[in-house]
Design goal:
Oligomer: single chain
Strand content: 5-15%
Pfam families: HTH_43 (PF09904)
CATH topology: Arc Repressor Mutant, subunit A
InterPro entries: UCP037266, WH-like_DNA-bd_sf
Shape: globular
CATH architecture: Orthogonal Bundle
Number of strands: 2
Largest sheet: 2 strands, antiparallel
Order of helices and strands: HHHEEHH
Number of domains: 1
């Protein structure tokens, strides 16, 4: 399957946001485990969510230090998360995820 870098980048961002919102993977290590992404790619993808107007925030755990916590999606912006759920298998196939 020949897919553009733009499409894979877009789908990767959607998939990461969906993983966070669904609770399947809400930290960098969990995203790495779920997708096989290197740490830097996962971090860059999290940072890039704001380019899609997806409001993703890190929530520090009370009483914890050193970035102990998890990510949450506060607002999806113009993205319809139902579309992601409905097209999840296609998104994963384009990205080469199981």
């Amino acid at each position: 399957m020949d897919v553009s870098k733009t499409k894979t980048s877009f789908y990767r961002r959607l998939y990461v946001a969906w993983l966070i919102d669904s609770g399947a993977a809400d930290s960098v290590p969990a995203l790495m485990a779920a997708t096989g992404m290197p740490r830097r790619t996962a971090q860059d993808t999290l940072s890039a969510l704001e380019e899609l107007d997806i409001d993703c925030q890190f929530q520090q755990q009370d009483g914890e230090r050193n970035n102990a916590g998890h990510y949450v999606i506060r607002d999806w912006g113009a993205i319809d998360k139902r579309w992601i759920a409905d097209n999840l298998q296609q998104i994963k196939a384009v990205l080469g995820y199981p």
